Amino acid sequence: MKVLLKKDVKKLGSKGEIIEAADGYARNYLMPRGLAVEATQQKIKEMKEKEAKKNRLESEKREDAKKLKSKIESEKFIIKVKAGDNGRLFGSVNTKDIAKAASDKGYDIDKRKIDLDDSIKSLGMHSIKVKLYDDITANLKINVKEK
Protein backbone atom coordinates (compact mmCIF):
# COMPACT_ATOMS: atom_id res chain seq x y z
CA MET A 1 0.00 0.00 0.00
CA LYS A 2 1.31 3.45 -0.88
CA VAL A 3 1.23 5.87 2.05
CA LEU A 4 2.18 9.50 2.52
CA LEU A 5 4.17 10.03 5.71
CA LYS A 6 2.92 12.87 7.93
CA LYS A 7 5.87 12.57 10.35
CA ASP A 8 9.38 11.10 10.28
CA VAL A 9 9.35 7.34 10.90
CA LYS A 10 12.58 5.65 11.89
CA LYS A 11 13.90 3.15 9.29
CA LEU A 12 11.02 4.01 6.95
CA GLY A 13 11.24 7.58 5.71
CA SER A 14 10.83 11.24 6.48
CA LYS A 15 7.86 13.59 6.48
CA GLY A 16 6.30 14.18 3.04
CA GLU A 17 7.69 11.03 1.40
CA ILE A 18 5.50 8.55 -0.44
CA ILE A 19 6.53 5.02 0.44
CA GLU A 20 5.34 1.48 -0.16
CA ALA A 21 4.42 -0.20 3.13
CA ALA A 22 2.82 -3.54 3.92
CA ASP A 23 -0.98 -3.30 4.11
CA GLY A 24 -1.19 -4.50 7.72
CA TYR A 25 1.65 -2.24 8.90
CA ALA A 26 0.05 0.78 7.26
CA ARG A 27 -3.51 0.10 8.50
CA ASN A 28 -2.67 -1.16 11.99
CA TYR A 29 0.34 0.94 12.96
CA LEU A 30 1.02 3.98 10.78
CA MET A 31 -2.50 5.28 10.18
CA PRO A 32 -3.96 4.89 13.72
CA ARG A 33 -0.96 6.72 15.21
CA GLY A 34 -1.25 9.60 12.73
CA LEU A 35 2.12 8.86 11.15
CA ALA A 36 0.78 8.36 7.63
CA VAL A 37 -2.27 8.62 5.37
CA GLU A 38 -3.15 6.72 2.25
CA ALA A 39 -1.40 8.33 -0.74
CA THR A 40 -4.23 9.70 -2.87
CA GLN A 41 -3.81 12.50 -5.40
CA GLN A 42 -5.80 14.85 -3.14
CA LYS A 43 -3.63 14.14 -0.06
CA ILE A 44 -0.43 14.60 -2.05
CA LYS A 45 -1.69 17.92 -3.40
CA GLU A 46 -2.67 19.11 0.11
CA MET A 47 0.74 18.16 1.51
CA LYS A 48 2.54 20.08 -1.27
CA GLU A 49 0.37 23.16 -0.65
CA LYS A 50 1.12 23.03 3.09
CA GLU A 51 4.86 22.78 2.42
CA ALA A 52 4.74 25.72 -0.01
CA LYS A 53 2.84 27.85 2.51
CA LYS A 54 5.27 26.90 5.29
CA ASN A 55 8.28 27.81 3.12
CA ARG A 56 6.71 31.12 2.16
CA LEU A 57 6.01 32.04 5.81
CA GLU A 58 9.53 31.07 6.82
CA SER A 59 11.08 33.24 4.11
CA GLU A 60 8.91 36.18 5.24
CA LYS A 61 10.06 35.71 8.84
CA ARG A 62 13.67 35.55 7.68
CA GLU A 63 13.31 38.81 5.72
CA ASP A 64 11.66 40.52 8.71
CA ALA A 65 14.54 39.37 10.94
CA LYS A 66 17.10 40.77 8.47
CA LYS A 67 15.34 44.15 8.43
CA LEU A 68 15.13 44.18 12.22
CA LYS A 69 18.84 43.32 12.43
CA SER A 70 19.83 46.32 10.31
CA LYS A 71 17.59 48.64 12.38
CA ILE A 72 18.87 47.34 15.73
CA GLU A 73 22.54 47.52 14.76
CA SER A 74 22.19 51.16 13.71
CA GLU A 75 20.86 52.22 17.13
CA LYS A 76 22.48 52.70 20.53
CA PHE A 77 20.58 51.78 23.66
CA ILE A 78 21.19 53.68 26.89
CA ILE A 79 20.72 52.14 30.31
CA LYS A 80 21.10 54.35 33.36
CA VAL A 81 22.05 52.69 36.65
CA LYS A 82 23.50 53.70 40.00
CA ALA A 83 27.27 53.47 40.13
CA GLY A 84 29.98 53.93 42.72
CA ASP A 85 33.63 54.86 42.51
CA ASN A 86 35.75 53.75 39.54
CA GLY A 87 32.71 53.03 37.39
CA ARG A 88 31.57 49.97 39.35
CA LEU A 89 27.82 49.45 39.36
CA PHE A 90 25.64 48.85 42.38
CA GLY A 91 24.20 45.56 41.16
CA SER A 92 24.42 44.73 37.46
CA VAL A 93 22.71 45.05 34.10
CA ASN A 94 21.01 41.81 33.03
CA THR A 95 18.93 40.60 30.07
CA LYS A 96 15.71 41.96 31.58
CA ASP A 97 17.18 45.48 31.69
CA ILE A 98 18.42 45.20 28.11
CA ALA A 99 15.02 43.97 26.89
CA LYS A 100 13.34 46.89 28.67
CA ALA A 101 15.72 49.39 27.05
CA ALA A 102 14.92 47.89 23.65
CA SER A 103 11.17 48.00 24.28
CA ASP A 104 11.46 51.67 25.30
CA LYS A 105 12.75 52.35 21.77
CA GLY A 106 9.96 50.28 20.20
CA TYR A 107 11.70 46.93 19.63
CA ASP A 108 10.09 43.75 20.85
CA ILE A 109 13.03 41.59 21.95
CA ASP A 110 12.55 38.57 24.18
CA LYS A 111 14.99 38.53 27.10
CA ARG A 112 15.63 34.81 26.51
CA LYS A 113 17.04 35.57 23.06
CA ILE A 114 19.70 37.93 24.43
CA ASP A 115 23.07 36.18 24.65
CA LEU A 116 24.75 37.63 27.73
CA ASP A 117 27.60 35.53 29.11
CA ASP A 118 27.78 37.40 32.39
CA SER A 119 25.91 40.40 33.78
CA ILE A 120 27.35 43.82 32.93
CA LYS A 121 29.03 45.30 36.01
CA SER A 122 30.79 48.38 34.64
CA LEU A 123 29.95 51.65 32.92
CA GLY A 124 30.65 52.24 29.24
CA MET A 125 29.83 50.73 25.85
CA HIS A 126 29.06 47.03 25.58
CA SER A 127 28.21 44.90 22.55
CA ILE A 128 25.70 42.11 23.08
CA LYS A 129 24.42 39.47 20.67
CA VAL A 130 20.69 38.95 20.19
CA LYS A 131 19.30 35.94 18.35
CA LEU A 132 16.54 37.18 16.06
CA TYR A 133 15.99 34.03 14.00
CA ASP A 134 17.58 30.59 13.59
CA ASP A 135 20.86 31.83 12.11
CA ILE A 136 20.40 35.61 12.23
CA THR A 137 21.97 37.43 15.16
CA ALA A 138 22.31 41.15 15.73
CA ASN A 139 24.84 43.07 17.81
CA LEU A 140 23.20 45.45 20.28
CA LYS A 141 25.24 48.47 21.35
CA ILE A 142 24.50 49.18 25.01
CA ASN A 143 25.79 52.33 26.68
CA VAL A 144 25.65 51.96 30.45
CA LYS A 145 25.63 55.40 32.10
CA GLU A 146 25.54 56.60 35.67
CA LYS A 147 22.14 57.72 36.99
UniProtKB/TrEMBL annotation:
Coiled-coil portions: 37-67
A single BP term in Gene Ontology: translation
GO cellular component: a single term: ribonucleoprotein complex
HAMAP family assigned to the protein according to its UniProt record, in alphabetical order: Ribosomal_bL9
Summary of the function given for this chain in its UniProt record: Binds to the 23S rRNA.
One example GO MF annotation: structural constituent of ribosome
Domain of life of the source: Bacteria
Organism field: Halanaerobium praevalens (strain ATCC 33744 / DSM 2228 / GSL)
UniProt keyword annotations, A-Z: Coiled coil, Ribonucleoprotein, Ribosomal protein, RNA-binding, rRNA-binding
Keyword Transcription: no
Xref: Pfam families: Ribosomal_L9_C, Ribosomal_L9_N
Family of this protein: Belongs to the bacterial ribosomal protein bL9 family.
Domain Ribosomal protein L9 span(s) in chain numbering: 13-40
The name this protein goes by in its record: Large ribosomal subunit protein bL9
